[in-house]
Structures are given as structure tokens and as C-alpha cells.
Write a structure and sequence with these properties.
Largest sheet: 13 strands, mixed
Number of strands: 15
Shape: globular
Strand order of the largest sheet: 6-13-10-12-11-3-4-2-5-14-9-8-15
Structural class: alpha+beta
Helix content: 25-40%
Distance between the termini: 54 Å
Number of helices: 6
């Protein structure tokens, strides 16, 4: 059994307690292992929203240009695409790009950002955390997201299957309480709004892959588990601000041709990791998700083919960039934050 924290980032733990010394997780989980030479990564979310039944020409052109840029020099090492309909009824398509070389990302982003933000309804949300500021977790050996940039997966790790496990997997959490700073502020200059970052803002991408399920297992997931998960995601979207969730999206992964894949993920911005922890531990919506998931897994046991993962980032203020052009006021962080019109 390994520690979730890689050896080169292990230090004396003074902040949060780890699992008790005799802790044995009830099921296996794994984390992404990055080369020690990788000290920071970039996670960029390129979004566009529209209300028309068909994809507008400006959106098609922007997505095609973004794809071409991603395939070019300094492009990301991994690209995902997903879509959803938000709380205001806008179809939103999000392209997620990951880099493990910050210099390459910054050169690329300087050219791609103005190309992407070409019209109203476009936005960019970026974090560039050090490897001490994020963690991953996988229920199996099928990697997703930022883990595509890692060297390998770990063996089975100890720090999971208990409340507070995410905090124990974030390397910086060994010596830092990861407490939030003052709230972000939206700087408004008309159609363009830029968000000034918040220290220790928390981002989670938490996904499900039911590609390999069939028969009773597929029915059980789609009819019993997924509706409860969706209800929890809708709660965070509509009421999450009261408990520290600034914004939540529940997205369906789409293939290159725009077809829905059998994968989804929740992606949300939180005031702090502590707020995320409290929702996971105490809130009825997450208790319902957890209970249904445990019923599913206990029924199927090792034969379960559902694959689960997440990545959690606690970003410093200087590692964040948010820009929204002509987006509706509930988009991303815009719906939760004060506006500075100076």
C-alpha cells in the first residue's frame, strides 16, 4: 500500500491529520504519478454558450480554430470536450486542455485566448497549479483528465474511502490548512469581465464512465444511481452558493463528431476545500449520492464495470485566470461574486 503523495513531495505533516495508522481502505484506488521534473500544470476550460437550436456559425468556426491551435506547436498534451444545458437554458460547450509545461502553455495561451474570445458568449477559466496543489483519484487503471500527462499510476493508495481523504492527498495539505482568502472580484469593463483570483480557490472535476457496463448493471446505473447524482449536481448549480459552491456544471463528454459518450463529470468551483469537504460529508444531496453508489457497488462487488475518478485543485490566487465576454450573469464565477466597475 502506497501513500497518495509522491515521495519527492512528502514532508512532515503538521496541518491536517492523515488516516489512522491501521487504516485499510475497503476497495482499491490509485493516483496519477507525475515525473519530479513536472512542477506545475495548466488546466484550461474554454467555454461557449448559445440558445439557438443549432450551433451558430461563429461557434463552429471558433471550435474548429481551437482544435487546430491545440494540434499545433505548444498545444496541450490532452484535450477533452463536453457539453450541457445550464440553469439559464444556454447550451454550453466546454473544451478542457491540459499542459505539463507552463512555458508552452503561456506561449500558446497568449495567441489562443484572443482568438477564442471572439464574440459574446465565450469564456475562459484557467488554473495553473503547482503539483503540490492538486490531487487525483481513480477507481481503476483507466485514466482521465490531467492524469494523461502523468508518467504512470500508483499502486493502491491508503488515503481514500474516508471523509477528508482529498485533503490528505493534496501534498501542500501536509503543512498548510488550505484556508481561503478574500473572495474573488469581477472587474467589469463592459462586455468583458475578468475575475481577480482568490487564494486557495478549489476546483473539482469528478467523473463517471459507464462505457463498459451492460445489462442489469447499466440499467442500475442509469435508472438508480445517475438520477440521484443529477439531483445533487442540480442542487449545487441552483443553491450551492449558500454552502460555498460558487458554480457547478454537470457535463456529458462528447466525441470528436459531437456524439454523447457514455461519460459525464461534475465540474465546480468552491470557496474552499473545507466547503467541498462539508458538502461531501454532511449534506443530504451528497449523502444520497454516496448511499446509492454504495448500494450499487455492494450489489455488484468486484464485477462492477463503472469507472470513477476525480481531480481536485486548490489554486493560489496568482495561478488563476477567468475571463467572460458577453456571457449571461450566472455564468461560472459571475453569478456569485461582487462586481468592481472601476
Amino acid at each position: 500500500m502506497e501513500s497518495a503523495i509522491p515521495p519527492h513531495l512528502v514532508t512532515d505533516r503538521t496541518a491536517a491529520p492523515g488516516p489512522r495508522p491501521d487504516w485499510q481502505p475497503p476497495y482499491p484506488s490509485f493516483v496519477a504519478r507525475f515525473a519530479p521534473s513536472v512542477t506545475r500544470v495548466a488546466m484550461a476550460y474554454f467555454g461557449v454558450q448559445y440558445r439557438s437550436e443549432t450551433e451558430p456559425a461563429v461557434v463552429r468556426a471558433a471550435v474548429a480554430d481551437l482544435d487546430a491551435a491545440c494540434a499545433g506547436a505548444d498545444g496541450p498534451g490532452r484535450v477533452d470536450r463536453a457539453a450541457y444545458v445550464d440553469e439559464a437554458g444556454y447550451r454550453t460547450v466546454v473544451t478542457i486542455a491540459y499542459w505539463d509545461d507552463l512555458a508552452r502553455h503561456e506561449r500558446w495561451f497568449a495567441e489562443a485566448r484572443p482568438m477564442w474570445l471572439r464574440a459574446d458568449g465565450f469564456f475562459v477559466e484557467v488554473v495553473r497549479p503547482s503539483t503540490a496543489r492538486f490531487e487525483t483519484l481513480f477507481s481503476n487503471d483507466r485514466i482521465e483528465g490531467v492524469a494523461h500527462l502523468a508518467d504512470t499510476l500508483s499502486g493502491e493508495v491508503r488515503e481514500h474511502a474516508y471523509w477528508g481523504g482529498a485533503r490528505d492527498r493534496v501534498p501542500l495539505g501536509q503543512r498548510d490548512g488550505l484556508d481561503p482568502g478574500g473572495p474573488p472580484v469581477v472587474v467589469d469593463d463592459g462586455a468583458r469581465r475578468v475575475v481577480r483570483g482568490q487564494h486557495n480557490l478549489c476546483l473539482i472535476r469528478s467523473g463517471q464512465d459507464w462505457t463498459d457496463t451492460d445489462g442489469d448493471e447499466r440499467r442500475m446505473y442509469l435508472e438508480e444511481v445517475e438520477p440521484v447524482l443529477r439531483a445533487g449536481m442540480d442542487f449545487l448549480r441552483d443553491h450551492g452558493r449558500a454552502i460555498g459552491c460558487y458554480a457547478n456544471r454537470y457535463l456529458r463528454v462528447v466525441d470528436a463528431d459531437g456524439t454523447d459518450a457514455d461519460k459525464s463529470f461534475g465540474m465546480s468551483w468552491w470557496r474552499s476545500l473545507a466547503d467541498l469537504d462539508r458538502w461531501a460529508k454532511d449534506h443530504p444531496t451528497h449523502k444520497a449520492i454516496f448511499g446509492q453508489a454504495m448500494k450499487y457497488l455492494s450489489t455488484l462487488g468486484p464485477a462492477a464495470r463503472l469507472r470513477l475518478y476525480h481531480e481536485v485543485t486548490v489554486a493560489a490566487a496568482g495561478e488563476q485566470y477567468f475571463e467572460y465576454r458577453g456571457c449571461h450573469p450566472g455564468t461560472g464565477l459571475l453569478g456569485a461574486l461582487a462586481v468592481d466597475e472601476r
